[in-house]
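pasting for ref
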Amino acid sequence: MRPRMLALGVAAVILVLAVPAWAANFTPTATFALSTKLVNANPTLTVGVKQDQGEEELAKVILAIPYGFKLPPDSAIDDGEKLGQGSITIALAPACSTTETVNVNIVERNRTQAEKNAGVYAVWVVDLHPVTTIDLKIKGNPTNGWKATGAIAPNDATCPPFQFHATINKTSSSSHVKLIRNPANAGTYTLKITFVGENGSKVTRSKAFSITS
């Protein structure tokens, strides 16, 4: 073998060994569905998330809702009101081959003073007990759009694969406040969700909707 070819081969092997296994194994997927796409309408929003076995576990999710959509402030909804529901089917450690399905409840939580000081607009809690609980901390406004960021605590009892589906209802459970309002102007609007893995991997999924008059 020529010296140059040998050197290139050695370099390629070193490069492969230097890349951690999880770097190419992080492909969670997401789906979005609005129950109505008319301007100023009050839809439900259904989100589905799926991840395959053996992948890097999730550490954070960031849901981006584009400008034009309206969300209620923390002060408009009572602490603990139900906002939505769903389910998650997830594998059990250590084998990650058997699964369990648990209910998901989404409720409003009053902001702490620290969250208010940090500019958090509202907190929607995704309760997947006993799997985990995710505090979605919402920041933004209808002019610039919204970001709901949730940290996911590690759970040694579960692992991918999993399938998650949940729906944000039209209104809160007792005060009946409208939770999502479509933009007032017709056009194309894109919802996005970014997944961050526990080792730093990142992937974004998106869905464009045509809002019509």
